[in-house]
């Protein structure tokens, strides 16, 4: 258990140093055969940095063909026995893993902060949510079954949901433990085995999940981690013994993964980007709508795929809405991610910081006005990372680049509207369709608008809540398939139909 320094002023340094020198960072970060290991051949290194200080904690070796082959081969071996267990037996392992995650919650959360730079309270919520997901699929595993179909003359047919084989996963960097657990737990519940490549920016907690599974009794070879960048991801995606790829990341990469999977007709789940609308009607509860708009934009430094970054506000309430929003946004505490009262942590990297600042500059050039934030902030001389004050833009128009493209930073674009029909049309005018929010006290309107919006996850009078069991995924270019919910089991299984003849075979020959 990592213990924070009692002296608050040096808290972040002591804690970061304590974690960076801990086994989580310095130990090998591949996970094969139920234990950590280094790759047998190194096809390059990448830096592991703590976003808040921008310091390099270590270099991580990228895995090449030999190690990807080994990981897939271990997973094939693991599949032989794991797929033969009953759902109940598999579920028990997952449920034990969920409990271990809860016991190790603080350690997992502190390590997640080191990886991502997000505030510790958010990391704790993330870990709790991940444990719930693993628990949930543990509970569902025993219920994965087929159907019995009675046919004529006593004949019948039955269906069986069978696992696919070895599932490959590739993740983004904003919710590292969530990517690993949202993909591995349904895959394992269904009897598949799993090989995961985390984002090179956030390699740590997926390996800890491997240790958790091991402790819970998951047989060796069923959950494997290979670290690396694009090349490693390509090797995994194109491996002939991978039956399915489950990918979370950007639209361009998702498109490449789908193309690569097409060659071998592999199954694919894609969780991609978003540019979602958050619609504030004049009859909303204003305080809740402001809170909702902030939740829709400012969690995890704005680096959330489902964010409602196009905030459509009815013209009649723009004045009071904006006044309250700006006042509360300015009160957000930007600072050391390990401090309990911090609400804005560090942007993941300099590269992402540059992208965010470019979008803000371009927005200004195209006619938008910054009413607050959008600047680099120095919170402490020791924290040399890229902290950005949450940014609110007004005078936005639908054609502006910042309104059309995903920024993946704390940049909220405010747009005004007059009528319900108009706002639905404008909200749907996007190639993406991940999520959306509706704030109104009119139940009929809420239902009508939710039915009309082209998106996979909608929130009425709230935003960015992910209760376990609710499916999540995109429409249009935001993705294919679903995660987190019962529907996900369909994406990790294939249906076998068996016809049983009870009489003689009839034929015209
Ligand atoms: P990215 O697409 O750049 O990278 C994602 C992962 O793909 C990384 O692990 C990377 O190493 C790997 N990769 C890159 N090129 C590859 C290739 N050709 N073949 C195989 N693997 C490859 O995305 P990112 O910058 O890490 O994440 C940000 C994006 O992720 C945003 O667009 C965000 O909206 C999206 N995202 C979506 C969800 C969701 O659930 N819909 C969740 C989180 C993030």
TrEMBL record:
By its UniProt entry, which Pfam families does this protein fall under? Aldedh
Active-site residue numbers = 271
Entry keyword annotation includes Plastid: no
Q: Does the keyword Oxidoreductase apply?
A: yes
**Any one GO MF annotation of this record:** oxidoreductase activity, acting on the aldehyde or oxo group of donors, NAD or NADP as acceptor
Residue span, Aldehyde dehydrogenase domain: 44-498
Keywords, A to Z, come to: Oxidoreductase
- Family note: Belongs to the aldehyde dehydrogenase family.
NCBIfam families, per the entry: PRK13252.1 (NF009725)
Protein name listed in UniProt: Aldehyde dehydrogenase domain-containing protein
């Amino acid at each position: 258990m990592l213990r924070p320094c009692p002296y608050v002023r040096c808290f972040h340094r002591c804690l970061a140093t304590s974690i960076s020198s801990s086994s989580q960072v310095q130990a090998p970060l591949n996970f094969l055969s139920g234990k950590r290991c280094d790759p047998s051949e190194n096809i390059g290194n990448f830096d592991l940095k703590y976003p808040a200080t921008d310091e390099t904690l270590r270099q991580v070796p990228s895995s090449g063909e030999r190690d990807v082959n080994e990981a897939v081969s271990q997973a094939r071996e693991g599949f032989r026995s794991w797929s033969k267990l009953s759902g109940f037996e598999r579920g028990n392992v997952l449920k034990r893993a969920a409990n271990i995650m809860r016991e190790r919650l603080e350690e997992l959360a502190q390590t997640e902060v080191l990886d991502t730079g997000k505030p510790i309270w958010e990391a704790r919520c993330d870990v709790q949510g991940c444990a719930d997901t693993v628990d949930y699929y543990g509970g569902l595993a025993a219920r994965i079954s087929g159907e019995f179909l009675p046919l004529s003359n006593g004949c019948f047919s039955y269906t069986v949901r069978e696992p696919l084989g070895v599932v490959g996963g590739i993740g983004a960097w904003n919710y590292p433990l969530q990517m690993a657990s949202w993909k591995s737990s349904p895959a394992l519940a269904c009897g598949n085995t799993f090989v995961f490549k985390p984002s090179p920016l956030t390699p740590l907690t997926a390996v800890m999940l491997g240790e958790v599974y091991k402790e819970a009794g998951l047989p060796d070879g069923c959950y494997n981690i290979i670290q690396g960048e694009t090349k490693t991801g390509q090797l995994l995606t194109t491996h002939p013994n991978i039956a399915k790829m489950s990918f979370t990341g950007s639209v361009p990469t998702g498109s490449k993964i789908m193309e690569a999977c097409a060659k071998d007709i592999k199954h694919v789940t894609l969780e991609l980007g978003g540019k979602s609308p958050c619609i504030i009607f004049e009859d909303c509860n204003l305080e809740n709508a402001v809170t909702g708009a902030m939740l829709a934009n400012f969690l995890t430094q704005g680096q959330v795929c489902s964010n409602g970054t196009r905030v459509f506000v009815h013209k009649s309430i723009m004045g009071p809405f904006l006044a309250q929003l700006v006042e509360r946004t300015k009160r957000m505490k930007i600072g050391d991610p390990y401090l309990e009262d911090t609400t804005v942590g560090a942007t993941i990297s300099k590269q992402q910081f540059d992208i965010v600042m470019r979008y803000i500059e371009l927005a200004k050039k195209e006619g938008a006005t910054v009413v607050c934030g959008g600047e680099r902030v120095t919170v402490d001389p020791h924290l040399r990372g890229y902290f950005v004050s949450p940014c609110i833009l007004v005078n936005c128009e639908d054609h502006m680049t910042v309104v059309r493209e995903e920024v993946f930073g704390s940049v909220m674009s405010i747009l005004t509207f007059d009528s319900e029909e108009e706002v639905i049309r404008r909200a749907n005018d996007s190639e993406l369709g991940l999520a959306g929010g509706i704030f109104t006290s009119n139940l009929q309107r809420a239902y009508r608008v939710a039915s009309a919006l082209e998106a996979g996850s909608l929130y009425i009078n709230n935003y960015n809540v992910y209760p376990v069991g609710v499916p999540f995924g995109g429409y249009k270019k935001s993705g294919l398939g679903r995660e987190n919910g019962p529907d996900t089991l369909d994406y990790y299984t294939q249906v076998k139909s068996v016809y049983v003849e009870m009489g003689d075979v009839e034929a015209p020959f």
